[in-house]
């Protein structure tokens, strides 16, 4: 046995332990940030009180707590933090999937026109009253997002398919639904409705409750499962459609499944929290710097970093301006744009 051969098992074992340690550290950091998000607010709540409130509700413990504190922890802040984590994970996963499928480092969830469609659906319910009594704002946004994805997919298929056609169809769909939204707001909205639409379009976690978490978390988990099942296919797609087909991958079927999963995750998140940019664009690039390009590692890393980023952004949105909560989309853009500039600078290649 050569020295190199003898060292291979040890190296593999070292890599396994290092990945486990990194994953454990990331999960611990996420748990801590969620706890911190629950504790920070207009009424500060100690971490110990947060832990007791969760123990009382989940494990049936009997710690004596103020009803106000327990209500704030359970009914408002914890649901908000968990939704932020679910949203960040889903958007980051969607970005990682699209960047592989479309072979475009600038691809992100909103390239499919989903965000613009969701905006139109939400505005149609809020201002025009379509589906009043049946559809909520989130329900209208979800239907608009699905409609946008169907139209963009049909346009891309009619144009011959392919990654470039999908991107072009997404740009066209985004412009169409953005124009529809602007038309409705301009012609039918009063000043108060226009402000409400603008706040929603910037992204907001205000008013989030447990039913929203019960939708967002399973969708994010399902999307993660689908993506991980196709991790090797995504590795192949990064080398092109021909390379993926040569490896025996059913290109059209796999691409349809993954695009559908991306559309579902994005539509669900946008329908709940509004448009939040840069998460799906920046986080996958950051994850590649940490774990490399292999999707078996990239997808979990993107989900964890995305969840951490969104929970942190939510905390910042509540403390950066005294006695005022910024739309979370503003915070993600303020941090995401410089971060993406740094990533581009680090990834530059000499000519």
TrEMBL record:
UniProt membrane topology term: Multi-pass membrane protein
GO CC entries: plasma membrane
Domain of life (superkingdom): Bacteria
Primary location class: membrane
Annotated keywords: Cell membrane, Membrane, Transmembrane, Transmembrane helix, Transport
Cell compartments where the protein resides: Cell membrane
Family designation: Belongs to the binding-protein-dependent transport system permease family. FecCD subfamily.
Protein name per Swiss-Prot or TrEMBL: Iron complex transport system permease protein
């Amino acid at each position: 046995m050569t020295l190199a051969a003898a060292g291979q098992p040890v190296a593999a074992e070292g890599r396994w332990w290092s990945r486990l340690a990194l994953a454990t550290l990331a999960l611990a950091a996420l748990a801590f940030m969620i706890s911190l998000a629950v504790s920070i607010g207009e009424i500060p709540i100690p971490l110990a009180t947060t832990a007791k409130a969760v123990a009382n509700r989940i494990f049936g413990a009997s710690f004596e707590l103020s009803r106000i504190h327990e209500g704030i922890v359970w009914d408002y802040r914890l649901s908000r933090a968990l939704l932020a984590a679910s949203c960040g994970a889903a958007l980051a996963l969607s970005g990682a999937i699209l960047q592989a499928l479309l072979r475009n480092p600038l691809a992100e969830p909103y390239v499919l026109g989903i965000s613009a469609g969701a905006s139109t659906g939400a505005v149609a319910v809020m201002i025009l009253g379509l589906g009043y009594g049946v559809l909520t704002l989130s329900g209208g946004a979800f239907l608009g997002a699905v409609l946008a994805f169907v139209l963009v997919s049909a346009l891309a298929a009619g144009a011959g398919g392919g990654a470039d056609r999908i991107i072009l169809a997404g740009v066209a769909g985004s412009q169409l639904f953005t124009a529809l939204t602007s038309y409705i707001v301009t012609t039918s909205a009063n000043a108060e409705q226009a402000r409400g639409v603008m706040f929603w379009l910037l992204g907001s976690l205000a008013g989030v409750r447990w039913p929203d978490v019960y939708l967002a978390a399973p969708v994010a988990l399902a999307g993660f499962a689908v993506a991980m099942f196709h991790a090797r296919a995504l590795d192949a797609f990064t080398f092109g459609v021909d390379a993926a087909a040569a490896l025996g991958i059913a290109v059209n079927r796999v691409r349809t499944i993954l695009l559908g999963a991306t559309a579902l995750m994005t539509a669900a998140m946008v329908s709940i929290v509004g448009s939040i940019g840069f998460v799906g664009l920046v986080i996958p690039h950051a994850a590649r710097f940490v774990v490399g390009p292999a999707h078996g590692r990239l997808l979990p890393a993107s989900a964890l970093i995305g969840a951490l980023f969104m929970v942190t952004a939510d905390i910042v949105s509540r403390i950066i301006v005294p006695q005022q909560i910024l739309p979370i989309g503003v915070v993600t853009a303020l941090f995401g744009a410089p971060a993406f500039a740094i990533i581009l600078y680090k990834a530059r290649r000499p000519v």
